[in-house]
């Protein structure tokens, strides 16, 4: 039971760290740098800050055109975040708990944006000339993506001892 408590705390600590970092960087970008007014700041030949108000979810799906859709997206993402909390609460593997913490912290960061602003603030643009392999994203999006990739990679390539014993 002690291991489970440590694993939970670690996952929740990762979520809190991701959430705080996401909101802190968004505050700097919005209020300090004033990116909503400036719209674009070239940082490197392959990276820039580019202001996007994302009214949908990933890749433009489920765009919220009005307040009803906005709050439905808040409810949908909150339900997903709650499911992640339940998964985290039962998770015994520390790597999976950290990955779930990344997903949870990112989801909470984007939920906060949607509640406060009415959209998710995206501003990180990695590009190679005119080629944009990624959509404009934020710290929360990056955390969610990394967390999901870790969970998928572990599910595909790492066998648990119990699964090995059955074979």
Structural class: mainly alpha
Helix content: 55-70%
In the sheet with the most strands, the strands line up as 1-2-3
Strand content: 5-15%
- Please give the alpha-carbon distance between the first and last residues: 28 Å
Give helix and strand order, one letter per element, not per position. Answer: HHEEHHEHH
List how many beta strands DSSP finds. Answer: 3
- List the total number of helices: 6
Mean pLDDT: 90
Radius of gyration based on Cα positions:
18 Å
Q: State the major sheet.
A: 3 strands, antiparallel
> Could you list the spans in which at least 5 consecutive residues all have pLDDT below 50?
none
Shape: globular
Q: What would you call the quaternary organization?
A: single chain
How does this model look, in words?
The protein has helices spanning 2-32, 35-38, 67-90, 94-117, 139-157, 161-166, and strands at residues 40-44, 47-54, 120-126. The protein is mainly alpha-helical and 167 residues long. Strands 1-2-3 form a three-stranded antiparallel β-sheet. Helix 1 runs parallel beside helix 4, helix 3 (67-90) packs antiparallel against helix 4 (94-117) and helix 4 (94-117) packs antiparallel against helix 5 (139-157). The longest helix has 31 residues, at 2-32. The radius of gyration is 18 Å and the shape is globular.
